[in-house]
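Deliverable D5.2: sample structural annotation.
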Amino acid sequence: MKLHLDIETGSRCNLKTEGLYRYAQHASTFVRVVCYAFDEEPGTIWVPLDALPAEIFVKLRLRLKQNEELICSEQIPARVKMHIEMGGEVRAHNAAFERNVLSGPAGKKIGFPEIKIMQTVCVMAKAAAHNMPEDLGDLCASLGSYPKDEGGRNDMMYLSKPRQNGTFCSPFEEPDRFVRLYSYCMDDVYAERGADESLPDLSPSEQIYYWMDQRINDRGWLADVESVKNAHALALAYKAEIREEIVRLTGYTPGQTGKLAEWCRDEGYFTLPDLQAETVVTACEDPSCPPHVKRVLQLYSTHNMKAVSKFPAILRSKCDDDVLRGMFRYHAAGPGRWSSRIVQLHNLFRPKIKDQDTAIEAFRQRNLQFLRALYDGEVDAKGRPINPMVVLASCVRGMLTARPGKILIFPDFSGIEARFNAWAWNEEWKLLAYRAYDTIVTDDRGHVVFDKKGEPMRAGPDLYVLAYARAFGVAIEDVTKDMRQIGKVMELALGYEGGVGAFVTMVDTYGLDLEALAEAAYPTIPLDVMLEAADGWEWALKNKRSTHGLSKRTWMIIDALKRMWRRAHPRIVTGWKSLKECAENAVANPGQVFRFANGKGAFKVNDRWLYMRLPSGRNLAYYRPRLADDGTIRYMGTDTFTRRWGWTSSYGGKWDENFVQGGCACILREALLTGEEHGYTPIGHVHDEPVTEVDESFGSVDELGRLICAPRKWRETLPLAYEGHRAKRYRK
């Protein structure tokens, strides 16, 4: 038997900014109404109060549907209590909310029994796994199931928060609002049930991973709150200094963006359109920007640095025990990868300093001059001085720590997407290269051989070195440090049919100098490739394609790099075409299976979804697929650029990206569960890196690394490797 459940609550805690777990634990949080329905039965509204105004009963009964019941009492309905205590299944939209609130202080106040994780089936999780909108109203509209009534939303928002005088509204004061609230909650149960019936359930294995996700969110990750407060105080002090200097130089504050932009134009930088982050970065690198304007823009950029906004976010959302909970969002991306919310732990600043511990200790002084002196003369990869804001941003990771008596162990899968892509399409030279690189050289007695730098010697070269050498036809020993950097960006940017735009984005992500990379690559590019790139430039102009603000020369060099990479990866390039053809055939022939990647994957249309079968057996779903007039596949999904739900399309490289990232998500799922089974308790994850917490005397990076890289039946020949750390503080 299934219990479909929805609740409405009130609290002085801000759910959006402080997060579910802080909200559920907050002393002010309370339950206003619980609505439920068993299986297909009519619903019940339970108001956990002594009494309600008579007019509410009258008005509600007029609004109730046939056979619906209204219960007003302190005692939880016996049938609900028995169902939950017996371990019965509880289904809800965003079941984590109902589970945490009803199992927390608010639920205990009304005598609600604890809901266990493994009792829950989350309809929002089912929607995410089928690449559908997570918002209940949008989900129901897309599915054509029982529609969500938005009529009571304003009342719900009003009644969930305290009034200006700090009190909460009661049913005796505004009975009509409460009638609409109760009806709204009951209607949500029907909407959730309708969506639940329209969506296939998660597979048994995926349901296990969802429950694991809930355990990780429940455990949470300890924050070093004292150090966060120190860092936040320094960031505020430094921002105040910058604000004063900007006002002194321009007469305007950093918040007056329109007037600041106008000042920059009046001072000679006529082409500045706005003060968007990307615009400012480009302007600061523009030789034509007047020095005094560039100085103001640099100050403005530093003042608005987003990385340090994580400090107040941590302080807002931490629970009473200083633990960050509920930070990870299950199946946030179509391929099944997680994302992060509130503090955004999947979007952490890449450190520009080497020793976080020293910096964090220095923060205790709360002295900007001391911090400046400590890093005086240090510069980043682009030769820019490291200012206090960069130091503070570089230490965000270090604010995440192990609990007392515990240690963090976090192995990161090395180059997992590139490895998976090569394995998927049997790019054999690359697979052999990975296996050679993963092999540590030993002498006749089995002892590890070390190179001149004191690092273990490997049987093969670094893959970024090899990528450049193979693409440009140069000897491995002739590949310089700059050439390796080019090889790295090529590997990260071009594997999914990416071009100039993808390359530029990757360069920006890693804070590299695009012009310097381009010039370093130019001498080794063959003439015929540059001629092809010249034709590409003309084609881009003719078809009004973006040139990303690059000069013709730089654009052509990057386009040439793309062509060189593709020449070196013929099987992956063929794979993009294969994916496109198989997807189109599947949409044109519903019910038939079309395999690709030597049987590692397959497409099939079943009911309203196009399914992509991953090597692990997990499916990715694409809703309402159809063939457009131009031959491309259109389906309902979230647009990559607008982030809005609607009709979108795909192509070979994008299918490949989904296939590879979906496969990597499967590997991370297995790694987290494997670690948990062997005593490595997962408390989080950052992209392809499981983060575990163990007793200080337990485990090692190598043991966990071997466990998570061990062959599985579905990926026996996939070469996996790891790099990792064992530390009190999280680090890169």
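Annotation notes: The chain has a mean pLDDT of 92. Residues 225-250 form the longest helix (26 residues).
The annotation will be released with the project's public dataset once the embargo ends.
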